[in-house]
Specification:
148 residues, mainly alpha, 6 helices, flat
């Protein structure tokens, strides 16, 4: 089973790496936007190769832990839908708005019902990331509707 999964992961990461090498390069930027995707693709290939040669076997107890209850599958699908919506709106609305909305509603959906805490985290977290990437690392994130 590990070999089948690792072959799939190697093929997936090869395609992912091909697409990441197609990303546009920006002049005058110390760290370009393709660095993280390339590093992740190479890391995924390395881990898939390690998985291919892994000889450990799974016990019955470990198999029982892996079974996902049906009600949790609905939660997983819903969060997956939120991620797709996040990706769809990312370029148009921008990083700050999209990430703030995603963090707020995903946290609320997963059971964190304290509105004030969710609102503060959903505003502070993407703001810090936006400042870090745009002004310290010089990696431009999509502005979207906001003027900065």
């Amino acid at each position: 089973m590990n070999q089948k999964i690792s072959v799939f992961l190697i093929l997936f990461s090869t395609g992912y790496l091909y697409l990441s090498f197609q990303l546009k390069e920006y002049p005058y930027v110390p760290v370009d936007s393709d660095l993280v995707p390339k590093a992740l693709g190479i890391l995924l290939i390395g881990l898939a190769v390690l998985l291919f040669f892994d000889k450990s076997s799974e016990s019955d107890e470990e198999r029982k832990k892996r079974v996902v209850p049906k009600k949790e599958i609905l939660v997983l699908v819903s969060v997956g839908g939120m991620i797709f919506l996040y990706i769809f709106l990312f370029e148009g609305l921008g990083f700050l708005l999209t990430t703030a909305l995603f963090v707020f509603f995903c946290s609320w959906f997963l059971g964190y019902k304290k509105w004030l805490s969710n609102a503060l985290v959903s505003i502070i977290f993407p703001s810090v990331l936006y400042y870090l990437f745009n002004y310290l690392l010089q990696i431009r994130l999509p502005q979207g509707l906001l003027p900065f």
